[in-house]
Design a protein that fits this description.
Elements (H helix, E strand, L loop, with lengths): L1 H21 L18 E12 L2 E14 L6 E4 L3 E6 L5 E7 L1 E5 L4 E12 L4 E10 L4 E4 L3 E4 L3 E5 L1 E5 L5 E4 L2 E4 L46
Antiparallel strand pairs: 1-2, 2-3, 2-4, 3-6, 4-5, 5-7, 6-7, 7-8, 8-9, 8-10, 9-12, 10-11, 11-14, 12-13
Length: 225
């Protein structure tokens, strides 16, 4: 009996040894960062020129510049602010732009600016908002946040803003603002399209009459005898 008992124990011991060996296998966990979040390049203390169609067009100054081609859509990320200058063909500054945070979707050629957004042109136009989109394909600037536009002749505020890249043709809805009268009417800038726009409100305004003092009524009296 002792002889056969030892033989029955052998099949029970072999699975236990196999289990103990398998428990020693090292299992690796998946990577903490997904491949989608890996940046192609991250640069610090950036001050560089960027060309467009072979012409030096922009200068970018940023504390941190991340280029990420793995995100969908691919983008440039400026988390710590952006200062951008735009040049004309003579390398003169046409305008400058700054924001607390900026994203550039290179495939769409679309800028998304967040935070304290400031734009100023060489002609003296100044724009401020907390959000601004710049579509370089359509050559448009637009924002659905409260925006303020200051020109040499007026100040405008509104909740929706749409303009061309040069800030010469613009639309602001739900507006309020002040105007300065000049030689040409409302303003002094010939390039401002609002000067040539018809004033539809004038036709609805009744011109008030000048008040005059009431003259005493003259009564003619005839004496009858």
């Amino acid at each position: 009996m002792k002889k056969y008992g030892k033989m029955y124990l052998i099949p029970l011991i072999i699975p236990i040894i196999a289990v103990s060996c398998e428990s020693g296998i090292e299992h690796t966990a998946p990577a903490i960062n997904d491949r989608d979040s890996v940046a192609l390049m991250i640069s610090y203390g950036v001050n560089t020129l960027i060309s467009d169609s072979g012409i030096m067009k922009y200068r970018i100054v940023a504390e941190e510049w991340e280029i990420n081609q793995n995100k969908i859509p691919s983008r440039w990320i400026f988390r710590r602010g952006l200062f951008l200058e735009e040049f004309d063909k003579s390398f003169r500054v046409e305008a400058f732009l700054q924001a607390d945070t900026a994203y550039y979707y290179d495939a769409k050629r679309l800028w998304e600016l967040r935070g304290r957004v400031r734009v100023k042109t060489r002609s003296g136009m100044r724009f401020t908002s907390e959000e601004l989109f710049w579509d370089q394909n359509r050559h448009e600037l637009y924002s659905d946040r409260y925006s303020r536009l200051v020109t040499p002749t007026r100040e405008l505020e509104g909740s929706h803003f749409l303009s061309d890249e040069r800030l010469t043709h613009y639309t602001i809805t739900n507006t309020k603002g002040s105007f300065v009268k000049g030689e040409n009417g409302i303003g002094t800038s010939e390039a401002d399209t609002i000067l040539s726009a018809p004033d539809t409100a004038k036709a609805k305004i009744r011109i008030p009459a000048n008040p005059k003092a009431k003259m005493p009524r003259t009564v003619e009296v005839t004496n009858k005898r």
